[in-house]
Amino acid sequence: MDITIFDDTRPYYDHEIPAAIERISANKYLPLMLNYLFPDTDTTSFIEAFKRIKSIYEFQTQIMYKAIWAIVNKSSSGLTHSGFDKLSNEKKAMFISNHRDILLDSAILQILLKDNNLDTSEITFGSNLMSNEFVIDIGKMNKMFKIVRGGNIRDFYRNSMHVSAYMRYAITEKNQSVWIAQRNGRTKNGDDKTEMAVLKMFALSSTKSFVPNLLDLNITPLVISYEYEPCDFLKTAELYVSRYQKYEKAPNEDLNSIIQGVTQWKGNIHLAVCNAITKQELETCDAFEKNEKFLHLSHIIDKRIYDNYKIYKTNYIAYDMLMKTDKYVKYYSKKQQSEFETYMNNGLENIEGEHEELKNIFLDIYANPLKNKEL
Length: 375
Description:
The chain is of the alpha/beta class and 375 residues long. Helix content is 52%, strand content 10%.
């Protein structure tokens, strides 16, 4: 295979790191980031040490690992995990994850992989987020590869073929696991659903039949659970507008969501590695016709994710408030419910719209993980 065909998609190679380091070091945003992440560190000394980095491994272990843990420590009550004993460096995986935060979902996976003595994974990087050289450099130094968003049907198919081939190459030949969201873009309403288009894309890059084709990728669902949903009020506002008209993103909206997702208080966070999709499960899917194979597989992945949700008091409170019941009252106190209601009402005051409708949208974001777990 001529791997230069992936030059427009792949992360950086080690020999490309020094030039990227120089560009980042000269960028005006770097001191601002350092001031937030490492307020007690001398910026000049940090940049001098930063310029000595020569490889992706050094960048991830010396910079990104510390940066993501700094974000977690500043904006959460704690990070827990489960299921990492199911992974090994010998068998790479196609991690397919629910998607709640643009940056943190995949970034948290990386620090937990390192803490469990596992190799970091490569990460999908939507072309819509590749807004400037600074963001592109940091992303591609952190094993992120491009997925092209938008375009007509012909462009979509061609781009899907290309990224599918790259992901299969990464897993089966580069010996790198891959992280991808279960859908195009974040779940805004808390109702995680795997899109068939993503699963079909996996299969495009092989001529093997359904079972061996997908078995080669070792599809492994992940689920990340936040006590307080990143960008919950931004998501509420978007969902409200979308009920009445086509939602159009404002300039720099994705960047604003990244910043808010990083800085907003998230309470407790949990990331669970689910059991990989088995040969027997793929054979069960293969008994169906064409699209039904992928639909059945999407349901298996969804069930894995729902079963491994970490349900927090915010989910129980929102469910009972939305459904007007006391079904889960034993999981929270009156004080905790009052605090959550105050949090909700204070945030909704800043959103234009009918209050009761906004309230129901907001509560649904938090209640849906529990509704799905009940299925």
